[in-house]
């Protein structure tokens, strides 16, 4: 059908063919709620939606599918830390991993999927001397994005230098405008880098860094690492959405929710708040007569428990003179004050 996406049309057709075979095998002619409920009960992995069949009103079927999804957790790619990224960029040999380094830089700076890294063209890149501007057109979310690659502040790592070094190795007369071309033995070829090759780069990086389970670093690793690092920096949801090109807040909120730094910040605030509520405020006032004859030594200790509102402590003066007014202290903790009083 015309409304099916080109990339997944074959999958839809294959799933529907499986459904038709099931109907023929079981001699089922009607395509109604009862038929679909029986089919999904037997073939959980197959889904069918064709012939403009609207299953939104099939409540029993929807309840059945939701029950089967309980406890399901989609597999997600593992991510790199900032230290791991800098370590690879600094220590990996350029003669072997230069293309991988540049793909890592673009993928993390721009939160790029593997498809966008593969399709990046020379026309999408603008060298601004002090930085490089990259435009990602026609994204999955239909939002054009731009991002900047800078030199970086990590010692021993110049990202602009790596980027330009790889660009300079591009062979003359290459018959396409794709930026990423195959890289072997310190030289670029004219062959464009394929999507499967790019999808393997995160695993290659993980293997070089000797990270556990390198096979879990998939083609989505660069994008997830970028969003996670940005969320850890403490930016708000709007910045994260613009960076990743997400229309919905739900995906961006997921990165913030899973941010380790955010969890640590929350834990610190909880502990600090608890300390403020439970810890008493003590003001210890000492007067001394040392080297000051005709002055009386006094010692007054006042305890006040802090609450959510600012606390005010009023101290009566030792003198009975009405000329002396009480001294007030606001929001004090373990404070020692020395003063003298004339007899």
TrEMBL record:
It comes from the Eukaryota. The keyword rRNA-binding does not apply. GO terms for biological process: DNA integration; DNA recombination. The keyword Membrane does not apply. It holds the Pfam family Phage_integrase. PROSITE patterns: TYR_RECOMBINASE. Gene3D superfamilies: Intergrase catalytic core. Keywords: DNA recombination, DNA-binding. InterPro entries: DNA_brk_join_enz, Integrase-like_cat_sf, Integrase_catalytic, Tyrosine_recombinase_XerCD. GO terms for molecular function: DNA binding. Residues 75-268 form the Tyr recombinase domain. This is Tyr recombinase domain-containing protein.
């Amino acid at each position: 059908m015309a409304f099916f996406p080109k990339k997944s049309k074959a999958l839809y057709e294959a799933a529907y063919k499986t459904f038709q075979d099931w109907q023929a095998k079981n001699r089922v002619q009607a395509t109604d709620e009862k038929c679909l409920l029986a089919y999904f009960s037997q073939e959980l992995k197959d889904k069918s939606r064709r012939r403009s069949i609207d299953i939104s009103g099939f409540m029993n079927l929807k309840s059945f599918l939701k029950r089967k999804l309980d406890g399901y957790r989609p597999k997600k790619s593992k991510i790199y830390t900032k230290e791991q990224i800098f370590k690879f960029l600094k220590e990996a040999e350029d003669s072997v991993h230069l293309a991988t380094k540049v793909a890592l830089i673009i993928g993390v700076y721009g939160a790029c999927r593997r498809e966008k890294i593969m399709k990046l063209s020379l026309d999408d890149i603008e060298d601004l001397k002090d930085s490089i501007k990259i435009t990602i057109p026609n994204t999955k979310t239909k939002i054009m994005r731009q991002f900047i690659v800078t030199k970086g502040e990590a010692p021993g790592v110049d990202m602009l230098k790596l980027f330009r070094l790889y660009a300079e190795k591009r062979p003359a007369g290459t018959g396409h405008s794709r930026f990423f071309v195959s890289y072997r033995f310190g030289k670029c070829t004219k062959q464009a880098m394929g999507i499967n090759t790019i999808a393997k780069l995160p695993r290659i990086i993980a293997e070089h860094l000797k990270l556990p389970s390198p096979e879990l670093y998939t083609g989505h690793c660069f994008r997830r690492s970028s969003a996670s690092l940005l969320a850890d920096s403490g930016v708000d949801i709007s910045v994260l959405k613009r960076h990743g090109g997400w229309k919905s807040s739900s995906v961006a909120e997921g990165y913030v929710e899973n941010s380790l730094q955010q969890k640590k910040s929350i834990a610190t605030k909880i502990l600090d708040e608890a300390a403020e509520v439970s810890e008493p405020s003590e003001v210890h006032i000492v007067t001394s007569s040392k080297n000051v004859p005709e002055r009386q030594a006094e010692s007054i200790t006042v305890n006040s428990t802090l609450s959510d509102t600012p606390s005010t402590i009023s101290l009566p003066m030792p003198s009975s003179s009405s000329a002396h007014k009480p001294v007030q202290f606001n929001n004090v903790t373990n404070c020692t004050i020395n003063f003298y009083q004339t007899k």
